[in-house]
Design goal:
Blueprint (H helix, E strand, L loop, with lengths): L19 E3 L8 E3 L8 E9 L6 E7 L1 E4 L7 E8 L10 E8 L9 E9 L3 E9 L6 E6 L8 E6 L2 H4 L8 E4 L7 E2 L1 E6 L14 E5 L6 E8 L3 E8 L5 E10 L2 E8 L6 E9 L2 E9 L2
Antiparallel strand pairs: 1-14, 2-10, 3-9, 3-11, 4-8, 4-14, 5-10, 6-7, 6-9, 10-13, 11-12, 15-16, 16-19, 17-18, 17-20, 20-21
Length: about 290
């Protein structure tokens, strides 16, 4: 079935014959998808593609959002996951690139997000995630008339970032067919690996927690190499989002934020920082 989907994959060569467009939708959306009213999840949706000759390095992701999206203050994370075995299942894929898209998200016009040229395996998944209000937010734009043979997926978790490298551990994850036949309006552009320019080494994001282990309040210090949208969260050992400490624009340089761990259960936690195309994590132990 996955191989049959290739017949529906539109491979559009650019004028310089150096790009491949990965696309399942027919160019228009007809339905908006979101979580039920029973919970408020972090939702990930997107498409799994098989890598095509001449499109081995992904350079951009294009997403059209549903216009029923009242939580527009929440930033959207764009993800590229690589799957070495090309089995059509993103639950064993690993993230190789990400980017934060600041709000507000208004209307259904597709938004293209550039990605530094990123090589992918035999298959890859491109998607978008955002924290939502259940029963109100409908961010995922769907072309309900697209063939049911496409490979669109949806996931719910307390924190998508915490499970992004092991989507099989997300509380909910499945192909959307059924119950919503069609394809998400999530596309990717690829270029040949041979002509993909090597990007300059990305500056690292320093992140550390003091004290560690902690019984009370821990100070999380980090250094940003450039200004941009930043997200700092604390995640427990089960991948649940425990605290959202920072979400917004910050200047380049040194920063610090505190987390009061006195109400947290003893154990190992992860502090995750997302900034531009960079992700940093730090291990934090809570003791009593």
């Amino acid at each position: 079935m996955i191989r049959a989907a290739l017949a529906l994959l539109l491979l559009a060569a650019a004028a310089d014959a150096q790009t491949v467009t990965y696309q399942y939708d027919r160019g228009t959306g007809s339905q908006n998808i979101g979580p039920p009213s029973t919970f408020d999840p972090d939702m990930l949706w997107g498409n799994y593609y098989l890598r095509q000759p001449g499109g081995e390095a992904i350079t951009s992701v294009t997403v059209a959002f549903g216009n029923t999206f009242p939580s527009r203050a929440n930033p959207v994370t764009i993800w590229v996951l690589s799957d070495a075995d090309g089995d059509g299942d993103p639950r064993n894929a690993v993230s190789v690139a990400s980017a934060l898209l600041p709000g507000p998200i208004v209307g259904t016009t597709p938004i293209t997000v550039p990605i530094p040229p990123t090589l992918v395996g035999a298959g890859f998944f491109v998607g978008a995630s955002v924290e939502l209000l259940g029963g109100q937010d409908r961010p995922a734009r769907l072309d309900a008339g697209a063939s049911s043979l496409v490979n669109s997926w949806i996931f719910y978790a307390d924190s998508i970032a915490a499970v992004i490298d092991s989507l099989g551990t997300a509380p909910y994850g499945a192909r959307i067919n059924p119950p919503f036949p069609g394809a998400f309006l999530v596309r990717a552009t690829g270029i040949p690996a041979a002509v993909a320019t090597e990007p300059s080494p990305a500056p690292t994001v320093a992140l550390a927690a003091f004290p560690n282990p902690v019984r009370g309040v821990s100070t999380l210090r980090y250094t940003l190499p450039e200004a941009g949208l930043v997200s700092v969260t604390v995640v427990d050992a089960l991948g649940r989002n425990v605290a959202a400490l920072v979400r917004g624009e910050q200047a380049a340089g040194d920063h610090a934020v505190t987390w009061d761990a006195r109400g947290a259960a003893p154990g190992v936690y992860a502090v995750r920082l997302e900034s531009a195309y960079r992700v940093a994590t730090a291990r934090l132990v809570v003791v009593r």
